[in-house]
Specification:
Length: 317
């Protein structure tokens, strides 16, 4: 079933649907970070969300949107971790089965979370083709509903609610920065942000070693090649036609950062804000710390800290 692209009305409906099911996460502000970044920076702490990531919003919205007959057959997804855990939790709360395909090499902390929330785990080779094939086989066998990690309007609308909360907490944002992988969070952020303020500048943050979104937007067409060998394991996916469409429609820009810049940002967040953020969540802060773009210097900037699921036995410093 090919669902229509999400609208701002879908985001507002998701906000109502998610009330009491996900956390309204705090927004942190640090004068030290302001001085380092040359801007007034407000951090939306989705690392403190249920399952430790913004993914809880999209998965919960998708599962709660299902008609009873469809829900009874369960849900299926493929995920490098956070979305899988989020879907497992959402399914458990609705009392339905969940099957999650994970690639070999997925961070242990994320695999353990999926298992704890009660999903059936299926391991595959670490390629997108292998993930999609196995997920399709499970859908065919069980009749369950595929809830894609990002190429699903219900998921995008759910992720967008983080931006609604941020803009309600911090009026007159001039710039919003969020990480980009498959584009579900970033396209949802743009959809929600422009629904509130058409003049908001929306910027995606992406590892230089997995920069398909930056190259796709620059070329005006989807580009899927790239090795994706980045420490930010949650940002190795590539845009879908749907998320690419939304990013183009909302004139979203993407800025890339190096691996060293990601690690430095991750450590600074811990040193200054005293919160644990995974590399994927630190990428947006790394963009600000570059201070290469005068368009946000001196501005009020919102940053989505997307997740905090870190293997503390393998910190990158």
């Amino acid at each position: 079933m090919d669902l229509a692209d999400p609208t701002f009305d879908d985001v507002l409906a998701a906000q109502v649907r998610l009330r009491g099911r996900v956390h309204c996460t705090p927004v942190f502000h640090s004068e030290t970070f302001d001085r380092l970044c040359g801007a007034e920076v407000h951090f939306k702490c989705e690392n403190l969300q249920r399952v430790g990531a913004f993914k809880a919003r999209g998965a919960m919205n998708a599962v709660q949107s299902l008609p009873e007959a469809d829900a009874a057959l369960g849900v299926v997804t493929h995920s490098s971790g956070n979305h899988g855990a989020a879907l497992a939790l959402a399914a458990r709360e609705r009392g339905i089965p969940a099957d999650v395909v994970v690639p070999k090499g997925t961070a242990r902390v994320k695999v353990d979370a999926i298992w704890r929330y009660g999903a059936r785990l299926h391991e595959c080779e670490p390629t997108l083709a292998a993930r999609e094939l196995l997920a399709h086989e499970i859908v065919t066998r069980t009749g369950g509903t595929l809830v894609h990690p990002f190429d699903d309007p219900r998921v995008i609308a759910g992720q967008a609610t983080a931006t609604l909360e941020l803009m309600a907490a911090v009026p007159e944002l001039g710039v919003l920065i969020a990480p980009v992988s498959g584009g579900g969070l970033l396209s949802g952020s743009a959809l929600a942000g422009h629904g509130v303020n058409r003049d908001l500048r929306v910027v995606g943050a992406e590892p230089l070693q997995a920069d398909d979104a930056a190259r796709s937007l620059a070329a005006g067409r989807l580009i899927h090649d790239g090795n994706g060998s980045t420490i930010a394991d949650g940002l190795r996916a590539t845009l879908s036609p749907r998320t690419f469409r939304l990013l183009v429609a909302h004139q979203v820009e993407v800025v890339t950062v190096s691996e060293a810049e990601i690690v430095e940002a991750m450590r600074l967040i811990w040193d200054i804000l005293k919160v644990v953020v995974e590399p994927s969540g630190a990428v947006a802060v790394a963009v600000l710390l570059q201070k290469k773009d005068v368009r946000w210097l001196g501005k009020r900037v919102g940053v989505v800290l997307s997740g905090g699921n870190v293997d503390l036995s393998a910190l990158p410093w």
